[in-house]
Amino acid sequence: MVSDCPNPMFTGVAEEWRKDFVEKRGRQMSDRHTLFKKRLTELGMFDKDSDYDGMIGEAIMELSEVFADQGHSGMSAVITVQLFHQLMQEYNDGDSPMWKGE
User: Fold this and answer.
1) How far is CA 47 from the centre of its chain?
2) How many angstroms separate the Cα of 56 from the Cα of each of 42, 92, 97, 101?
3) Residues 97, 87 contacting (CB under 8 angstroms)
4) How many other β-carbons are positioned within 10 Å of the β-carbon of residue 45?
5) Backbone angles phi, psi at 7, to 5 degrees
């Protein structure tokens, strides 16, 4: 924790960095949510006549919040999304080693 830092000089630097990071991340999250919601709306993903009665759009927005809370950098974000996608594909494939206990 920042406040546990024994050197006051580093405590101030760390606290300043943390505040800057939180502010930027909050702005990035807000921008991403705005852009995601706009695009999902354009695609009709919140409409009651869309697949699953608009629940897909809501699910994507919820996933975006969780993803933002995890604090991914650009590279970790790409790796995380790709691995999650791979696992979901395997999960939906009955012949996957996932189901065979291999």
Assistant:
1) 23
2) 13, 18, 28, 31
3) no
4) 21
5) -95, 115
Chain-centroid distance of CA 74 in Å reads 11
| Per-domain residue ranges of the chain | 2-71, 73-102
Q: Cβ contacts of residue 90 below 8 Å, gap of 6+?
A: 96, 97, 98
Helix axes 74-91, 55-70, angle to 10 degrees: 130
Integer angstrom CA distances of residue 64 from 37, 39, 53, 61, 85: 10, 13, 19, 5, 15
Segment 68-94, tens digit of pLDDT = 888 877 788 889 999 999 999 999 998
Over the stretch 24-40, which tens digit does the pLDDT of each residue have? 665 665 677 788 899 99
